[in-house]
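Suppose a classmate hands you a notebook page containing two proteins, each written out with its sequence and a corresponding row of structure tokens. How would you begin to make sense of it? This section walks through that situation. The first entry is reproduced here exactly as it would appear on such a page.
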Amino acid sequence: MKMRGARIVMECLLEQGVDTVFGYPGGTILNVYDELELSGYGEKIRHILTSHEQGASHAADGYARSTGKVGVCFATSGPGATNLTTGIATAYYDSSPVVFITCNVNENLIGKDSFQEVDITGITMPITKCNYLVRNVEDLADIIREAFAIARSGRPGPVLIDIVKNVTSDECEFEPLPLEQHAQHGRLARLLRRASHDLKDPEPDRRDVDALLAMIGEAERPLVLVGGGVIRSKGAVPEFRKFAEALGAPVASTIMGGAALPGNHPLFTGMIGMHGSHASNYAASECDLLIAIGCRFSDRVATDPATFAQKAKVVHIDIDRSEIDKNVKTDHHIIGDARQVLELLNKGMKKREFKEWREWVFSHKEVPLKKDDILHPHEVLEMIQEVTDGQAIIATDVGQHQMWSAQYYHFSRPGQLITSGGFGTMGFGLGAAIGAKTGNPDQVVVHCTGDGSFRMNCNELATVEHYQIPVITVIFNNHTLGMVRQWQSLIYGKRYSQTDLERGPDFVKLAEAYGISGGRAANQEEFRAQLQKAVDSGKPYLIECAIHKDAMVHPMVPGGAEATSFLLD
């Protein structure tokens, strides 16, 4: 039957099982928004209107990370589209599957500097897996189907579809197509036929797996490093835990690999790298075999790539061939989806135990945590753990609170930590928390943020209140840009240039202005009472925590230094 382009968009979203869209309307995308009301699609697809396009982009990302589904975000042309770019880059660097749908000016106005015209496909080319400019309504359905397939396949990531406005009003024949038939139809089928590796996960080479098993058999001091690739791979976490327990070696993680092993697992050494634990970093420096699964050896992990794990044979397992030898040179690699590789490894694994090696690794203890009358960051996370029984989804912004969250909350399942690891996006957390709670209505969602980060997108409190999304926001308020101040204190001679935030606002009053209840905490008892009140209320809630200005993230290795060159213990 004949359909307008705007209706085809809606039908294709339903084909993909989309139940939620985050977005913000504007002139060029009005036909799509009109279709939500005109044909009743708003009853099938929930639309969350955010305060800003960046908030919508982070919400779609948080939804994707916490549910494992593809997130969807709408925006209009010009500044509406460009406001998405930080969110697109955030999703790209953390391999989060989000489809961004924007609409541009009419075809006859393209390239004429028209009102709110921008080449958003050109702008986003470096930060998307793929992007499209749709100029013909007959191409629209297959492009949308293709975009979703690309977003979720292989190494997941964001895809942008920019549709010229007249395409949303043009008509063509539309044939509904069940999702399971998409790969045999139209553009997607043609893409599959011509692609050298198709849109399916590369099959791991059994010979490569056997070679790794032989290396394991010869190792005396192995270390496993787990990254976000294990979290992103459907079904990989149980296989990883089976592998780790059979190997019996210490396991470290990147920030994105948190929850691959529960935080309190006896093999887990903690996070590695710049703010990694002593156990993780010393293990990396002394291991004779490093098995890295689903990580990319960023500079926050391998602070000095030339000396990282220099005594070890390095084995890299990743679905993305381009990551191999990019940052750290390897002795062996396996290309493939983490789950598939781990399944093959588990079939050939023999039970091992490295008791003396583990004892040596875990002998490297952390600096004892402070316990006194004031509220310390680790106590905030420990109480969130206790009150929520460790089941809360934690969405963070970027800064000291992000590291504290990764260090002191014991994550136990994929999608439980929602954070910007690769791009380091301040202002990410509240939007991401909205998306996570929308996708997981039965889970407690706690938004951990700092006073600097919260200022950046606190306008999304309006979204939280309007839709009554019961996100609990916990602000670590030290009245400064804490992580920057930490660097200034340790590296820049305590010259605190432009990091002082002693300027308001009153965050509790701000929340109240949006119609959201809140409270303050300056000690453990006050925070526990506020958190319990927030959880019991089942409503949005904000807690401002008084954190000492000079509280620091321990330990710390400066960039460019060896893993054990701790600037701060």
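The notebook's second entry, a different protein, reads as follows.
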Amino acid sequence: MKRTGTRFRPRLAANHYDAIVIGSGIGGLTTAALLSKLGKRVCVLEQHYTAGGYTHSYEREGYEWDVGVHYIGEVHKPWSMIRRVFDVISDGKLEWAPMDAHYDRIVIGEQSYDYVAGRDEFKAEMKRHFPAEAAAIDRYVELLSEVSARVPRFFAGQALPRSLGMLYARLRRLWLPAYFFKSTREVLEELTSNQELIGVLTAQWGDYGLPPAQAAFVMHAMVAKHYITGGNYPVGGAIRISETIIPLIEAAGGNVFTYAGVDKILVENGRAVGVRLHKDGCEIRAPQIVSCAGLVPTYTRLLEPQVAEAHGLLAPLRQVELSAATLCLYAGFKGSAAELGLPKTNYWVYPSHDHDHNVSSFESGQNPAMPLIYISFPSAKDPSWDAHYPHKATVEIVAPTLPQWFAQWKGSTWGKRGADYEAFKAQLTEQLLETLYRHQPQLRGALDFCELATPLSTEWFQWNEQGEIYGIDHTVQRFDQHWIHSQTPIKGLYLTGADTVTAGVGGALMAGVLTATRMLGWRGYRVGKLLKDWKPAMPAGEAAQVAG
């Protein structure tokens, strides 16, 4: 079984760390790696058997799947910020493979539309389907770029001291356009009345979990702009993310421990001073503690209730909602991706173009049709796959679900939930597979293994209260919660990950940058300098030639 990190043993922990990071998601690893690059000794504690959070991979029955890295945008551009951060925290060892130019296929009913890599190419493809909407399509793509250019200013408060950051968040309406504070549907209906076009343009809502009337436009625009020049996949699979980052943390004297679930954050005299682990009540201390466990779990599970209440952390939680829960089917097939004719293109399958209606009718029980089914082909995306898993292929299928479907088994032990649970999973599995076979009929009969993860699986492995995969919901109201900040009211305690910036690998990655900057205080400028000055290491042969 593939895994990264070191299994925790008390004797392996150092006597002193400069910082402790709870959770090894990409936000936590980024924070730890940047601090390590700047001379800090950091301990990362992960409760799972492997590091990586939603960027880890897992093996079963001779197959391997990622659990959250289905594709990443902009990393094919060496000058992009996301690529620069990945290069810095991996010492340039993380490689990326491009997907097909048609990186997303949107299937709405019987009609399909392709998202094509490149701004001009994307616009041309949309205009081919909607020739009367050329002006609206052009303006939409312009808006994506406008939002992208201003996003650093939108989130800049996360790198400021907490009080200044909260004030900054309140005042940013004064210098940012109004569309930063509207829903996706509100903004798009100012561009066009064509509801089919709106449905096609917002078809990536599954990347952040909210349909257009509920989602903040800033969230949608960041995702759409992120992918508009194409999608990419890590060479070697998602596991390569933690495999390339962890050595950098260890080189600075730090550790990344697995099987190291944190029971409580220790707070003394109003300051976070360490953590107590589930394992033997072991305590590890450091002057700075960072939680990448999510906003709600941190405040409700990792802090003593009286501590959280005394610092006013519980009442504001009523102002945020948890994001969507999902099913994820991991399927393995006999035959390579090439032999089976699998694409690198993702499929997004919808019953109709009205995403808001699809979701509301599904949630109310009026329509049993899943409002979205997403299909990814990771073995086709990874150019190194066949060398490790010859004549095998993998597929991942993700769909929204409702936590109440699984309420009767809540609190039960993973792998021991009984025959009724397994029968229900089998029913859902069949439904998802039939959708796959409808779009890839050649796979029927080639299935070798499959396993369904439910919200209970997500809660068990990832500590998400309702099996949510995007932390808190990214509504317009969520971005008006000025109290959400990388620096908490408890001295020495910080947050990182998607809840402090936005959903997705890119959002959590940038949260790691902002959190590390805030932790360094007035020396935070060193993070920016590190990112600006980084250059790839010169190969040994070339270095010798230069020296000669």
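A careful reader of the second entry would note: The mean pLDDT is 94.
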